[in-house]
Amino acid sequence: MRKTKKQIEQHDLHVKRGDRVILISGKDRYDKEAADKKIGNVKKVIKSENKVIVEGLNMVTKAQKANPMAGIQGGLNKIEAPVDSSKVMLYCMACESPTKARYEVVNGRKVRVCKKCGEQIDS
Ligand SMILES: [Zn+2]
């Protein structure tokens, strides 16, 4: 069966808003040896582009034109650039490592649990 565009857009990404995630490539990729581990929360999911915006990661400097009418100051602003969802991995706080989630039904509710340690990811 041929997939329509609509079906693709409706497909859920493996991460959602509020998830703790790491990046597996780029300048902000996760390094478990680093003192300052780069872990961020998913700020926004852009389903139609299969991308996510992660707070504090993949920052780019963007020149902003001043627009006093809208209260926007001109200059160079640091903003998060969207990252392809395939470059994002869930991070488990319980076993302190990047992980994948599997689904379990707890009290009739579908929740995600860490594949490594079995801890619940959704609270
Ligand atoms: Zn875990």
Structure description:
- The radius of gyration is 17 Å and the shape is globular.
- Strand 2 (40-46) and strand 3 form a beta hairpin.
- It has 123 residues and is mostly beta strands.
- It contains one helix and ten strands, in the order H-E-E-E-E-E-E-E-E-E-E.
- It has a six-stranded antiparallel sheet, with no helix packed on it. Strands 4-5 form a two-stranded antiparallel sheet.
- It has a single domain (5-91), classed as SH3 type barrels (Roll), CATH 2.30.30.30.
- Zinc ion is lined by residues 92, 94-95, 99, 114, 116-117, 119.
- Zinc ion binds next to loops.
Q: Using the CA coordinates, give the radius of gyration.
A: 17 Å
Percent of residues in helical segments? under 10%
What molecules are bound to this protein? zinc ion
Rounded mean pLDDT is 90
Residue share in β-strands: 35-45%
The H/E string reads HEEEEEEEEEE
CA-CA gap between termini? 36 Å
What is this structure's SSE topology?
Blueprint: H1 5-10, E1 20-23, E2 40-46, E3 51-54, E4 59-64, E5 75-80, E6 83-84, E7 88-92, E8 97-99, E9 101-106, E10 109-114
Antiparallel strand pairs: 1-2, 1-7, 2-3, 3-6, 4-5, 7-8, 9-10
The chain binds zinc ion.
Give a summary of the structure in a few sentences.
The protein is 5% helix and 40% strand. It is mostly beta strands and 123 residues long.
Quick tags:
6-stranded antiparallel beta sheet, 5% helix, 40% strand, SH3 type barrels, 123 residues, two-stranded antiparallel sheet, mainly beta, binds zinc ion, 10 strands
